[in-house]
Amino acid sequence: MPNLRIIYDNAADRASIAASSSAGAMTPDRLLADIKSDVWRSTGTTATITATWPVAEAIGGVVLPFCNLTPRATLRVRGYARAGDAVPLFDTGAVEACPAPVLGLWDWGSVPLGSNAYTNGGGTYARAWVPTPGMVEKLVLDIADDTNPAGCIEAARLVCGVYWEPSINAEFGAPVQAVDTSKHVRTDAGDLVTDVGTRHKTQSVSLASLSPVDRATLWSIVWGNGMCRPLFFSLYPDSDDARLEQTHQLYGKLSNTAVMTTPLFQQYATSLDIEEI
Question: Which end of the chain has the lower number of beta carbons within 10 A, N or C?
């Protein structure tokens, strides 16, 4: 199994985005914003998203955070070295986009919750890792989810780019927390009333054995992204335990500035705390 991976520079932010279909004002340009309730929606259960760049970008992974795809959905990613090429530089084939059960909300009825569900902790992450990353000017995503009960495909963000993977993985015991901003209030009658808030995840990891090369790269990521620029983090990419992978991946921001230490000669250490957007 690969070590943890971080997509720290989202190439989608520099791309022109198009989709094979869009429902009303829910156009694919919404995939370029970090507002979870502003989603792109297709008109059916299959769709194609195309991203193009004026100059080639390095692509090693593609993620659709906060989407409504089911465990049966597939995602195929093709990258073309030149925008006009007919033969792709890489082709992942149709892979399971999010094989774990959807981390959703309680079933409130027969009508899907829609885009408002994502701001309350609903939705899931669809991902496809490119076996051999490459430089491409065009990226084509083919999404198929024929059994989706919503009858359409929704996604709030497109994340793609090169990923960093340390040579030595994070230490065991990396905690993930389900954060609920709801608040309890005790009434004068003694009843416990809940002011329902939103939900999100936080992930912490300790990297205690960084090589000089990994230290330099991670420091560039921490310094470049700061606390304001989002990144995609996956602790168990392409894990055989799909539920474990789904739980420990998130699109978020650093909760604080990292501190780099030198516990041994030519060995470096730091920890990361990431909060889902």
Answer: N
Q: How far apart are CA 186 and CA 105, in angstroms?
A: 25
> Is pLDDT at 227 greater than 80 in this prediction?
yes
Domain count, the chain: 2
Task: Please report, for the domain that includes residue 75, its CATH number.
Answer: 2.60.120.260
- 34, 145: one domain: yes
Same domain membership, residue 73 and residue 33: yes
Tokens of 100: 């774990």
In a domain, 171, yes or no: no
Domain that holds residue 107: 5-164
For residue range 113-165, list pLDDT tens digits in order: 455 566 666 678 999 999 999 999 999 999 999 999 999 999 999 999 999 99
Residue with tokens 């790269």: 217
* Shared domain check, 219 and 134: no
Q: Which element (helix H / strand E) includes 213?
A: helix 212-225
Q: Does residue 236 lie in a domain region?
A: yes
CA torsion through residues 111, 142, 61, 237, sign? positive
Predicted confidence band of residue 111 (pLDDT cuts 50, 70, 90): very low
How far does CA 256 lie from the centroid of its chain?
Answer: 20
Q: Are 218 and 164 in contact (CB under 8 A)?
A: yes
Tokens 């780019």 locate to 161
- For residue 101, give the DSSP letter: P
Separation CA 74–CA 179 (nearest Å)? 29
Which is nearest to 135 in space by CA: 91, 182, 80?
A: 80
In order of 13, 129, 132, 274, the CA distances from 91 in angstroms are 22, 10, 10, 31
169 in Cβ contact with 109 (< 8 Å): no
The reply to whether 14 and 150 lie within a common domain is yes
Alpha carbon distances (Å) from 264 to 208, 222, 261: 10, 21, 9
Residue 45 confidence (pLDDT):
96
